[in-house]
Design goal:
2 domains; two-stranded antiparallel sheet; MetI-like fold; 284 residues; single chain; mainly alpha
Length: 284
């Protein structure tokens, strides 16, 4: 077969698969939007659930999800970025570093329900945090940690070595080079890992089921040791445990639509920040 024909067949196959993925995504989003838009109104977004969660709104679940995402990132980002800096900038290619990378990759493949059971055992029971925002945030931070470490490592490796050697040649220390040269250059790509991590932790149900989620809590938490409602678990409850499925089904679709919108909004904001930093670095 002629080489050009093979190439055309290959490109056509790739194009078909790419279009198929886009169509599936559009179909899923269209289905959620079509069924969930009917439930979206001001009361739904700002009120607490009432009448056994067959009426009212989802405001406590929205706030609880926001608290969990922010709390998990506060724990996961410093630890993950610091670990990645050590493995790339200080660790070299030693046996210990290779074992750490293997363990990180294995940790990324652990099912989320296992993280939930671990968080319940360690944070809820052993450390005495109880079912709380703190326990849920720490559990979600562990879930996001492997992804943040791996993406940060790749971002640091993508920085040219000439940046490091040039800085060291000018008399800067290793730490100063990392802080003033390497991290600013790598940060736009580090944000990609943050986007993926936020998307994952905001939609997880199993970890928060064991550590923080309340079945019905029509008020906002007062401290990090309080339980909270969260959109993923609230969606699960509406879809499976409602006493009146016909009444709760529109609310379930509306909750799913709000959750998707929040994730897309967070991703869009971080993407804008990433593009702004990339443009700033390229101009410099």
């Amino acid at each position: 077969m002629d080489r050009k024909i093979k190439q055309r067949i290959a490109f056509t196959t790739f194009r078909i698969f790419s279009v198929s993925v886009v169509l599936m995504l559009v179909s899923i989003l269209g289905f959620i939007v079509f069924n969930g838009a009917k439930a979206i109104n001001w009361t739904f977004l700002t009120a607490s659930p009432t009448e056994g969660m067959t009426a009212g709104g989802i405001f406590p679940a929205i706030v609880g999800t926001f608290y969990l995402v922010v709390g998990s990132m506060l724990f996961a980002l410093p630890l993950g970025i610091t670990a990645a800096i050590y493995t790339v900038e200080y660790g070299g290619e030693t046996r210990i570093i290779r074992i750490m990378r293997i363990m990180t990759n294995n940790l990324a493949g652990v099912p989320s329900v296992v993280f939930g059971l671990f968080g319940m055992t360690l944070f809820v029971n052993k450390m005495g945090f109880g079912s709380s925002l703190l326990a849920g945030s720490l559990t979600l931070a562990l879930l996001a940690l492997p992804l943040i470490i791996r993406t940060t490592e790749e971002a640091l490796k993508a920085v040219p070595d000439s940046y490091r050697t040039g800085s060291l040649a000018l008399g800067a220390t290793k730490l100063t080079t990392i802080r003033r040269v390497v991290l600013p250059a790598a940060f736009p790509n580090i944000l990609t890992g943050i986007i993926l991590s936020v998307g994952r932790v905001s939609g997880e149900t199993a970890p928060i089921l064991f550590t923080v989620a309340a079945y019905f809590l029509p008020h906002l938490p007062d401290s990090i040791f309080d339980q909270a409602m969260a959109l993923p678990y609230h969606l699960y409850v509406l879809a499976t445990s409602g006493t009146d499925m016909e009444a709760t089904r529109p609310m379930a679709y509306g909750t799913a639509l709000v959750l998707i919108f929040i994730v897309l909004l967070m991703n869009a904001l971080v993407s804008l920040l990433r593009n702004s930093l990339k443009n700033k670095n390229s101009n410099e």
